[in-house]
Amino acid sequence: MNRPGAVVIVGESIAGLTAARELRRRGYAGSLTMIGREPEGAYARPPLSKEVLREATYEAHLAYPHADLDLAYIRSAAVGLDASSRIVSTADGRFVPYDALLIATGADARRLARTAQAGELVLRTLADARLIRRRIERARSAIVVGAGFLGLEVASACVAQGVEVTVVDSEPPLLRHLGPFVSERVGAHLTRHGVRLIQAAEHVHLVGDPVTGVALSDGSTQSADLVITCAGDVPAVAWLSGTGLADSVGVAIDERCSTSIPGVYAAGDVAYLIPGTGERASRAPFWSNAVAQGKVAAASILGEPRPHPPRDDYFWTEILGLPVKVVGPLPVNGDPTSIEGDVDAGDAVLRWESPGANPTVVAYGRKVPVGRLRRALVRAAP
Amino acid sequence: MKIQVHYDRCEGHGLCAEQAPDLFSLDDDAELIYHAEGAEVGSEELVRARAAIASCPVAALREIP
Question: Where is the FAD/NAD(P)-binding domain (chain A) (predicted)?
Fold first, then answer.
């Protein structure tokens, strides 16, 4: 087996760390360097928009252990890649050579503020979550821009702390991913808990410097003590400029997590799988995909067969006490093809099946272990 | 150290079982089973036990002294 002499992972993320662990688990004993810009090292991000916004003590549970992995750490951002010489350069002036490189730099929050407009709040890092938590503690009102999963989790945290919340989006909550059936019910659930939903005709603009509110396209303005942008993310690819590895979607990877350059792999939120004929290129920036791709990338780096496909269509969220787990492809359209349980009571399993496609199963408020949901999916497959 | 399992938080992701298969497994119904309930984790299992605790995306596992 032709194993690389030096592996460099850029991005101290769940994708990067999963790959590091998988490399060691597969017996790779060579040099393994982790380059990351997080000053405190790798930590779990899913709780940042959930528990961390409510209790500071939860931060103690975020760190990923890695002492057993024998990693060399460079806690500085990667700023450049010379793929022909196989060298990564870092913000603190280092040049790090590699035989195999894994790009796992994830994504950054998409921002709406104009250049030099101060005070926009986003949620992506632990530092972001800490800042928002402190601001929620002092706020009486909040505007959340974006009615996707992140926006609704942030709105939930605000409600839990007695903050009046307005959620603004050009689409109804979660419509883009979960379709009208779930969207309507989630909307009603939010309204019952006092959340004000505003559907803007077009995209909104942040007003004030520092930001104090949003302007809607009808000319009206909404303001609040706290304005948080939850408008999706953009792949962290600035450091790859000039390499041809990244396009406007992200870093394209194949089924082995290989990029267009030999010896360079990518995994997690930064990457997207090259679409099949007729499919649209898009990233699927979910935690379970990052884990699956981290493992596949590690196997590929070692020249071994991949253990499973580089995708895992699963994620979970919690909206004002309503846990929602989703297994299977998105978006779903129209009404579910089957409903088990009581949707309005928040205790149901919804299923969308269509001929020739993998089904999608949603546990809506009902506590179902993920493994069982996955099996339900297998059983339902044609 | 001991591990406290918050079964009400557990979503059955199963990553702990992957990190520390001697301590955790999922039953046929995908529910978590912790094999050292109430017992001290042995020194030879410590690294794997901590990896399991940290791998949990919903922090259902807590280390207690």
Answer: 7-294
